[in-house]
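Attaching the record inline, Q. Sequence:
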Amino acid sequence: MTVPVTSALPTLSPSRAADFKTCPLLYRFRSIDRLPERPTADQARGTLVHAVLEALFDAPAGERTPDAAAALVAPQWQRLVEQEPELATIFTDPPLSPDDFLSGAAELLQGYFAVEDPNRLEPGDREAYVEAEVDGRLVIRGIIDRLDVSPAGDLRVVDYKTGGAPREAFEARAMFQLKFYALVLWRTRGVVPRVLRLMYLRDQEVCDFAPDADDLVRFERTLLALWQAIELATQNRDFRPKPSRLCGWCAHQALCPSYGGTPPPFPSPAPEPVGEVVVERD
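Structure, as predicted:
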């Protein structure tokens, strides 16, 4: 999903911020070179599960059942492929059965019902686009999977994860995304979310974090320092690889100096990292 951004300020999303933290060269490939990446089966399955869970809440309470969710899988996939035909390429390399793909999505949805009863809540918003200006220098923005609002006005930010529950180091990466959203909500609504919730459907686990204003002030400083590092790297055209265990999932390994590759010439002038919100599912 993409959402146009109209602000003249540079913009930063959780995924692009995480890219730079993980590997500055990956950030360059995605945000500056804007190299294409074919969707993977896991990414497509995540997109499908998110679409089904969004649509599930269109039904009234009492009708949000596992069978209802399963019935949404095939039509939602058809809708997604019509919108983004490239998603259909996941069945060609390596060969993947459409039936196996759809049944895998249905299994993840069963994991959702194991950790939550959707009939007991009414989301305040789903797939909610949010943005906020930070220090007059930067717009931070993204799309929240689900935002729950209590009668007292308390906020709960919910993020569905279709991958396995991570070890501690990777859990911090996932929570980074939710702190990003919490900061936006605080700056735009004046309310610190009461709960940030990661919902791991495959492993049927829930991870909650309760932020406070001090947490978000520190996080805002972290983001501004990160953006300063991005600006400096862009000015110097110096985005260095940072090898890690995540390299095995990188789509651009052939262009990485750590693996004997050569990056493409740096764009001149370098495009500003503004324009679209790119939503990635995992």
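The chain is about 40% helix and 15% strand. The longest strand covers residues 138-149.

More tomorrow.
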